[in-house]
Amino acid sequence: MPAESSERATSPLPSVDEVLRSDAGEVAIARFGRQATTAEVRRMLERLRATMPEPRPARPRSDALAAEAIHRLEEGARPSQRRVFNLTGTVLHTNLGRAVLPEEAVEAVLAAMRHPTNLEFDLSAGERGERDDHVRDLVREITGAQDCLVVNNNAAAVMLVLATLACGRETLVSRGELVEIGGSFRIPEIMKRSGTRLVEVGATNRTHLSDFAAAISAQTGLVMKVHRSNFAMEGFTAEAPGPALASLARERGLPYVEDLGSGTLVDLGRWGLPRERTVGDVLREGADLVTFSGDKLLGGPQAGFIAGRADLVRACAGNHLKRALRLDKLRLAALEATLKLYRDPDRLAERLPTLRAFVRRREEIQALAERLRPAFAQALGPDWSVSVVACASQIGSGALPQDLLPSAALAAEPSGRAKGRALLALSARLRALPVPVVGRVAEDRLLLDLRCLDDEARLAAQFAALGARS
Ligand SMILES: *Cc1c(COP(=O)(O)O)cnc(C)c1O
């Protein structure tokens, strides 16, 4: 009897050693190491043994098993957090990592990763410095703030301000501004955690300056205004304006703080976008402190700013919580590089990816969609009708929720009856691509809003791969 078949009679599978000694096994060991490869091969053989059907199939070849192990090891080595195509139509998508950073920030981060830096070292004095020094003067220059500090995110900034200025005392906020942002940031909860007592002022739809005046007592520590961010109030409404609140607080000797949420540094009207009060505007209108995010409209890394009166910023910096909330050298490098771009507003829309996405014209996006439509249609085959449709993108992350940007999308509609199931299946196939594609489903169609697409060739190549698989 030939050796192969006599062995097969006793063992239907190659041994771990045989697989490792095959050509592909050696490749696997060179790439992933002996330990990981051995473990993977052992797992595969155990699984095969457990599910071996009767009668026994042909004995698998060692090389083929090793090739399968390479495939599995490759999948395991793929980063968990990886690049995706954000074709949801929401530019600042919190679940997709919000702002895409400018090249200047990418380079600054690389340099800070590779080398020691003067993170907390004053090079001119040769003494210990402060990490916030790297952005302080920039923020002062751009916003007119006396001083500023940065922490992990805006939620942390709000928390630090409350814990420093109003711990054990009352904080006044309008009932119409007790917002929840993304489920995990609720103003009342943050207040509780910061050790301040929330005093709700006014009615849900209407709050007047006189309501604030009446609510101030010896217990009051802080007057606060919160940007509504992700909702708008219509109808019979009133709010106490920031400048009036600032004057009232000053008369009573209390600090007045605005949580701006997104926090624009420049007038977006310049690019035909809706106007928002900038950080500088709010400070000029009398706010003592302003808090805002780094990765929303600002277009930088995740961070939270506290900007305004120097004595209050110093008080926050002196709170022990600051240590737990501070930024590392990488994000500070990215933040500094991003803020520097604001010195040249004329070129900001070219250099800052978020702003570039906001100002992208519908005609340009539509042309992009027309070019990609045939490849997408071909990939999906005859069961789908693919068209280019007009749609509206959102800025996202609670910034200007009312204002939609005119855009264009590839729309895929299944021709069969089980439309819901077909759309779910297609969404899953797109998410399984090498660079996962995330769109949105609306009105029995899958929409790929191309506003944020910055790599047309890559998406086209992926459409080809999608077609090849189906
Ligand atoms: C987004 C937002 C926050 C939270 O900011 P993060 O940077 O995500 O922590 C807080 N307040 C307002 C008004 C917001 O819009």
Number of helices: 20
Task: Summarize the amount of helix as a percent range.
Answer: 40-55%
Largest sheet: 7 strands, mixed
Report how far the terminal alpha carbons are from each other. Answer: 44 Å
| Percentage beta strand | 15-25%
Poorly predicted ranges (pLDDT <50, ≥5 residues)? none
Description:
This protein has 20 helices and 17 strands. It is α/β, with parallel strands linked by helices. The strands form 5 sheets. A 7-stranded mixed sheet has the order 4-12-11-10-9-5-8, sandwiched between helices. The model has no long low-confidence stretch (mean pLDDT 92). The site of pyridoxal-5'-phosphate has 16 residues, from helix 8 and strand 10.
Brief synopsis:
With 470 residues, the chain is an alpha/beta fold. It contains 20 helices and 17 strands. The protein has helices at 3-10, 16-21, 23-32, 34-50, 62-77, 103-114, 133-143, 154-165, 187-194, 209-215, 242-251, 279-284, 310-318, 321-325, 329-341, 348-351, 353-359, 362-380, 419-431, 456-469; strands spanning 85-86, 121-122, 127-128, 147-151, 170-174, 180-181, 185-186, 197-201, 220-226, 256-261, 289-293, 304-308, 384-396, 399-414, 437-438, 440-442, 445-449.
